[in-house]
């Protein structure tokens, strides 16, 4: 969890904004530090978290979380964290190793028309359960890292959008929780316009309430400034004005420092 | 022109509001819903994208009994078997049935939020046909409003769906956060097409304020056909037009080689001491033996 980001977003683990649909995206940069931020943020806030990891294994996430002061293994044993090892499950499905609940859930890769209904039902079941177990002060959270991997696995943009819509309708509206998703954009996938990750990103931008867009610096590599992030509060909810701000940042071992463009310590 | 969209009395109007992720057209949609409610018309919403409470917020609470939300938000595909209306039910027949369940005596307005959801799950041609059927059905549905996210579809699909509509409003954001620009093109039944660009601001309380685009304030209401005929005499460096005084002056000027009586008499009057040329051609004079083209190498 990065304190500086919390102060920019005007939030803290004691005061979690409910019903948020947060869209993280990156282009020619790496936004995974934001995934780690939100994972540790919501765990510290005491929320029940369902994490769908399509990019890394649990040990990777727990190693990073350890540095940020959160123990994933413990949280998982407590039942606060439901970790879906979709990375391993996808491979198992591809290699035709059947068996196990997770493989069942990744059935989407095999069915004639790939849809993510089984995955949604798993997410809903695991998060609604938390709702039943009382402690209703802390809203449930779904984090997906990341959605564009599903596209690479042959799931259509339409199926992914159906999945996110159901997640938003169930988790944000019914359970008063939040959804965090990451979409990675490549510049060279414009040839297939309808099935590209940029198309997915545009569609999700319509859906989201808060968008954090990480982009590489236009001037190229810099030692003191890693990349820039555009924070966009969308005016979808009541009383929220649409607002955009751009920050540059540098990622350190355990924290991130944000500053207005052109005001890094290396420049001034 | 934005404010006049709803005022037409003829039935079968179909309005598409096109937006992009940068600026949502949903608030404009809500403005029209609010206007229709205030006129005492029933508003039926097919809601796919936002929950009921979000769409309801800001609407006039005195008229909410006329507001009917057919929710396809929580379960648009029938996965959790919660809602009666799913995207599969998008057909003229089903929708007419749905409207008849809560039919009021007066006119009703159908709002589709959004068409993008429908287009994503149906064939474009089918969607256009069903919309056309709904328009022609007449009677219950006076007007249809639809929201379409332009940046989510191929250009051809956006064009096809827009052709069915009688009015297309495209909203785009301005640099100024308060104002946005709306490009309206309206096709009348007579075939006349009206186009207009307007700046508008629409705060939370849904009061629309419009400012016409400053650089074309003179001839805002342009017909498509006259617009294409540009006046070639408008930007000349010289004057092509005649004033009344200039015309009179021009008429007074005598043209050369036109013989007035005066001029004729002046020229033809035999002056005193004038000579006379006598010429008697000599027989040998004009004969030239030499070939004039001799030096040419023909």
Automatic annotation (TrEMBL), chain A:
GO cellular component: cytoplasm; elongator holoenzyme complex; nucleus
Any one Pfam family match given in the protein's UniProt record, by short name: ELP6
Name this polypeptide is given: Elongator complex protein 6
Keyword Zinc recorded: no
GO biological process, one term: tRNA wobble uridine modification
Localization in the cell: Cytoplasm; Nucleus
Annotated source species: Ictalurus punctatus
Pathway per the UniProt entry: tRNA modification; 5-methoxycarbonylmethyl-2-thiouridine-tRNA biosynthesis
UniProt similarity note: Belongs to the ELP6 family.
Keyword Cytoplasm part of the UniProt annotation: yes
Keywords: Cytoplasm, Nucleus, tRNA processing
UniProtKB/TrEMBL annotation, chain B:
Composition skew (Acidic residues), residue ranges: 282-298
Cellular component terms per the entry's GO annotation: cytosol; elongator holoenzyme complex; nucleus
Main location: cytoplasm
CDD domains: Elp5
Keyword annotations of the record: Cytoplasm, Nucleus, tRNA processing
InterPro entries in UniProt: Elp5 (IPR019519), P-loop_NTPase (IPR027417)
Subcellular location: Cytoplasm; Nucleus
Pfam families found in the cross-reference section: Elong_Iki1 (PF10483)
Pathway(s) where this gene product acts: tRNA modification; 5-methoxycarbonylmethyl-2-thiouridine-tRNA biosynthesis
Chain residue ranges for the region called Disordered: 271-298
Example GO molecular function: tRNA binding
GO BP terms in the entry: tRNA wobble uridine modification
Assigned protein family: Belongs to the ELP5 family.
Annotated PANTHER family: ELONGATOR COMPLEX PROTEIN 5
The name this protein goes by in its record: Elongator complex protein 5
Record organism: Ictalurus punctatus (Channel catfish)
């Amino acid at each position: 969890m990065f304190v500086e980001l919390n102060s920019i977003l005007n939030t803290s683990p004691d005061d979690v904004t409910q019903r948020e649909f947060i869209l993280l995206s990156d282009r020619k940069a790496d936004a995974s530090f934001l995934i780690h931020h939100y994972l540790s943020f919501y765990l510290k806030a005491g929320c029940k978290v369902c994490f769908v990891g399509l990019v890394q294994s649990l040990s990777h996430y727990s190693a990073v979380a350890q540095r940020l002061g959160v123990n994933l293994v413990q949280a998982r044993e407590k039942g606060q964290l439901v970790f879906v090892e979709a990375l391993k499950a996808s491979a198992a499905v591809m290699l035709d190793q059947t068996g196990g609940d997770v493989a069942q859930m990744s059935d989407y890769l095999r069915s004639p028309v790939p849809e993510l209904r089984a995955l949604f039902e798993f997410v809903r079941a695991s998060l609604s359960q938390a709702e039943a177990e009382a402690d209703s002060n802390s809203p449930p959270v779904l984090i997906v890292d990341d959605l564009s991997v599903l596209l690479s696995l042959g799931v259509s943009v339409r199926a992914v959008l159906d999945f996110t819509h159901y997640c938003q309708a169930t988790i944000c509206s019914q359970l008063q929780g939040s959804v965090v998703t990451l979409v990675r954009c490549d510049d060279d996938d414009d040839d297939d316009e309808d099935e590209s990750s940029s198309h997915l990103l545009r569609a999700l931008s319509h859906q989201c309430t808060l968008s954090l867009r990480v982009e590489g610096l236009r001037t190229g590599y810099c030692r003191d400034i890693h990349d820039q992030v555009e924070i966009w509060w969308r005016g979808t909810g009541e009383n929220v004005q649409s607002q955009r701000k751009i920050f540059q940042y540098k990622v350190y071992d355990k924290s991130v420092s944000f500053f207005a463009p052109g005001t890094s310590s290396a420049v001034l | 022109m934005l404010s006049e969209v709803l005022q037409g009395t003829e039935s079968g109007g179909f309005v598409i509001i096109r937006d992009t992720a940068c600026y949502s057209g949903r608030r404009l949609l809500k403005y029209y819903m609010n206007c229709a409610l205030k006129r005492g018309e029933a508003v039926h919403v097919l809601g796919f994208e936002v929950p009921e409470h979000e769409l309801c917020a800001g609407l006039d609470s005195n008229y909410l009994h006329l507001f009917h939300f057919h929710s396809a938000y929580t379960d648009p595909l029938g996965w959790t078997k919660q809602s009666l209306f799913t995207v599969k039910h998008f057909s003229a027949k089903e929708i007419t049935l749905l409207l008849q369940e809560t039919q009021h005596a007066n006119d009703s307005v159908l709002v589709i939020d959004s068409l993008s959801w429908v287009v994503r799950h149906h064939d474009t041609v089918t969607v256009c046909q069903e919309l056309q059927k709904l328009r022609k059905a007449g009677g219950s549905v006076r007007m249809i409003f639809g929201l379409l996210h332009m940046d989510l579809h191929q250009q051809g699909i956006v064009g096809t769906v827009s052709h069915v509509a009688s009015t297309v409003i495209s909203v785009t954001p301005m640099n100024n956060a308060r104002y946005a620009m709306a490009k309206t093109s309206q096709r009348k039944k007579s075939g006349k097409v009206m186009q207009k660009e307007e700046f508008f601001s629409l705060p939370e309380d849904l009061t629309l304020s419009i400012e016409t685009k400053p650089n074309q304030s003179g001839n805002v209401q342009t017909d498509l056909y006259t617009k294409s005929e540009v006046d070639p005499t408008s930007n000349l460096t010289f004057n092509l037009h005649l004033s009344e005084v200039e015309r009179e002056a021009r008429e007074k000027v005598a043209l050369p080689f036109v013989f007035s009586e005066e001029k004729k008499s002046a020229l033809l009057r035999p002056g005193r001491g004038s000579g006379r040329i006598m010429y008697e051609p000599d027989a040998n004079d004009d004969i030239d033996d030499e070939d004039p083209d001799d030096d040419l190498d023909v």
